[in-house]
Design goal:
FAD/NAD(P)-binding domain; D-Amino Acid Oxidase, Chain A, domain 2; alpha/beta; single chain
């Protein structure tokens, strides 16, 4: 018998937020942690964190996120993340909107020596010979040497390895059915297969499934957490193209479309995407092509799973920076689902006694992976700084429309299956 029994915690969701929280709690030695996830194989194929790369940047107007991102980058550079984190720097261009001007001023204030605007020749030097003759060379831009990208699937696997070292069970095929209550307090969870897991505390970190999950109905304000699909594409570079593009930084436009692109991976896959208002999914529409119904529909209709409007914009923006790549055949397309919030702020708060919700990554949480577990841990123990506790609370004013200025150029809309791009449109143009 333990003299001081550990607090029992069940974490629902084995993505970034759930896994980092579990690691932090288990490492403290004060918690008996179990992680549950609906997916039969982990990491879940359709999770936002299961990807080849995610941007890591400290480029924020918001001071809280900028400071947290700087600390995250410092930790990403550690030995623990070797082979996962790649510090390429971040190039932001098209700095004409007032928000972009404000962003540059905010980023430069944190690193006056390292962050500065670039001349056309300096943009060319950063983007490499593949940018020759591109519109990007005529746009205002700055380069931040701090930041780059992380191999996101690899980071999640490292978290799982650490959980195994700590003897934390990670239970797949564990789909939440309902919360177990004792009065108002949540004291465990019941799964769809009837299994029950009792706990002193439950952390709900279900990613984009959080806001609409039936088990959480009535606990979250309407519109606070909305699943939105964001469009992603990639091209396969030839060995000759790899020589041209291998050393480019993460690069993005500040024109309101939310376009950003990555350097190629070691295997020559170059990903580019839109961080936009995104697509909502009606109940009768599958989220991703991994859904059997979606796969059957895609095969029958000869389509991929991103709308042609987004595909056209992705190709256009890629061509503005790297003209020779814009018409290449796409290696893949993907809908990446955010747990979106209207204000772009996270949700890390108690929804009921014993139930902490950790969600609302809003497309920018992954870069904080090295510190996010500590943040959730601190909120669980009610020792998060007051201003962050208020910033990420559940009961806060919810704007009717998204208020993130970087995402206004491509507004939120429902996913229409008739709008999906054809396989021919995804081929070489």
């Amino acid at each position: 018998m333990e003299l001081f029994p550990k607090t029992k915690v069940v974490v629902i969701g084995a993505g970034e937020l759930g896994a980092t929280a579990a690691v932090s709690l288990a490492e403290s030695g004060h918690y008996d942690v179990t992680v549950l996830d609906r997916a039969p194989i982990l990491p879940a194929e359709d999770a936002a964190s299961t990807d080849i790369n995610k941007a890591v940047r400290a480029d924020y107007i918001d001071r809280d996120y900028a400071v947290l991102a700087q600390e995250s980058i410092r930790r990403w550079r550690g030995k623990e993340w070797e082979g996962v984190y790649h510090e390429t720097g971040v190039l932001q261009r098209n700095l004409t909107r007032p928000e972009a001007v404000e962003l540059f001023a905010a980023v430069q204030s944190l690193d006056p020596e390292g962050v500065r605007k670039l001349s056309s020749s300096e943009i060319r030097a950063r983007l490499g010979p593949g940018s020759e003759g591109s519109a990007a060379l005529q746009q205002s831009a700055y380069y931040n040497p701090s930041g780059g990208w992380a191999w996101s699937s690899g980071a999640i696997e490292k978290l799982y390895a650490r959980l195994r070292e700590l003897n934390v069970p990670i239970v797949p095929s564990a789909e939440l059915a309902e919360l177990i209550r004792d009065g108002d307090a949540v004291v465990g969870v019941k799964l769809t297969d009837g299994r029950e897991f009792r706990a002193d505390k439950v952390i709900a970190a279900l990613g984009s499934w959080t806001g609409g999950h039936p088990a959480l109905k009535g606990l979250l304000p309407k519109g606070l957490l909305v699943p939105t699909g964001q469009t992603v594409a990639a091209v396969q570079l030839t060995p000759e193209e790899m020589e041209i593009y291998r050393d480019i930084p993460v690069n993005a436009t500040q024109d309101g479309t939310g376009y950003y692109a990555f350097p190629p991976t070691a295997s020559g896959v170059m990903k580019f995407a839109l961080h936009s208002g995104g697509y909502t999914v009606p109940n009768n529409v599958p989220r991703t092509v991994l859904d059997p119904a979606a796969a059957a529909y895609a095969q029958e209709k000869g389509v991929g799973w991103i709308p042609r409007k987004s595909l056209a914009l992705l190709r256009e923006k890629l061509g503005k920076g790297f003209p020779a790549l814009a018409k290449k055949e796409l290696k893949y397309t993907r809908m990446c689902y955010y747990s979106d919030t209207p204000d772009g702020d996270f949700v890390i708060d108690y929804a009921a006694p014993g139930l902490l919700v950790a969600s609302g990554g809003a497309g920018h949480a992954f870069k904080f992976l090295p510190v996010m577990g500590e943040i959730i841990h601190a909120r669980l123990e009610d020792r998060l700084p007051t201003h962050l506790k208020n910033k990420w609370r559940i009961n806060r004013p919810v704007p009717e429309a998204p208020s993130d200025d970087d995402r206004q150029g491509f507004g939120r809309q429902p996913l229409d299956l008739e709008s999906l791009a054809t396989t021919a449109e995804m081929g070489a143009q």
